[in-house]
Amino acid sequence: MRYDPRRGRLVKVARREPAHVTISKELGVAIVTGVHAPGALLMGEIELAEKLGVSRSVVREALRMLSAKGLLHSRPKSGTRVRERSQWNLLDPDLLAWMFEGEPSLGFVRSLFQLRMIVEPAAAELAAVGRTSHQLSRMGHALETMDAYKLTTEEGQAADQLFHAIILEATGNELLVSLSGSIAAAVRWTTYFKYRRQRSPRDPMPEHRALFDAIAAGDPAAAREATVALIEQAERDTETALTA
């Protein structure tokens, strides 16, 4: 299972993905982890297709996906080059995932948590006032799933993403809701990275329960406070994993 930000719920993961998606991921990871530096010229479509054993149309579609994320720029006769990092769509959920395929810099991780700290406490305040009974029920179910499966599993991590996404949804603010994919990806991949690098990181369930209780009670100040505590602890744990 995984959280699909477009559908706003957990969905079953398809075992095989299209070839152009696989190739875009392989190239994307190579770019964001520095194998292909900004300004680097990639192989041409024909060369890439021969090297990867796929059709030229598959390669073209993969490059188109990466261009849409701001990673590549193609010009006739000049070829396809990696764009400067400042032009990458760093909030794209795929890019966030690819960053954690390697070893993200401490600066990038801190920036990610700064973003969460700017967005999520205010969102929790709004959710405490505007959440519906159905949204609260979904949050509670996600919390139960996290507790049952634990954050060491895909199911638990997907439920964690869903929990945070529903809070953004409960704000009723469409601009905040549009960030749910990015926030969910940040939650997922920092959690994944933390558990990949540490055998027994601290259990974050008490902070999640405190946040849920504050939203359920309709207490904006307590919801903000619980969110700040949750994010601060997650940042400490992630930095510990990164510097271990």
Please describe the topology of this protein.
Elements: E1 2-4, E2 9-11, H1 19-32, H2 45-52, H3 56-68, E3 72-75, E4 79-82, H4 93-99, H5 106-130, H6 133-149, H7 154-169, H8 174-177, H9 180-197, H10 205-216, H11 220-243
Antiparallel strand pairs: 1-2, 3-4
Strand residue percentage: 5-15%
Structural domain tally: 2
Q: Count of DSSP E strands?
A: 4
User: C-alpha Rg, in Å?
Assistant: 19 Å
CATH class of the largest domain: Mainly Alpha
Largest beta sheet: strand ordering:
1-2
Poorly predicted ranges: none
CATH topology term of the largest domain: Four Helix Bundle (Hemerythrin (Met), subunit A)
Question: Based on helices, strands and strand pairing, what is the structural class?
Answer: mainly alpha
Largest sheet: 2 strands, antiparallel
Overall average pLDDT: 91
Continuous helix count = 11
Distance between the termini: 30 Å
Q: Which descriptor suits the 3D outline?
A: elongated
- Kindly state the percentage of residues in helix: 55-70%
Instruction: Spell the H/E element sequence.
Output: EEHHHEEHHHHHHHH
CATH architecture call of the largest domain? Up-down Bundle
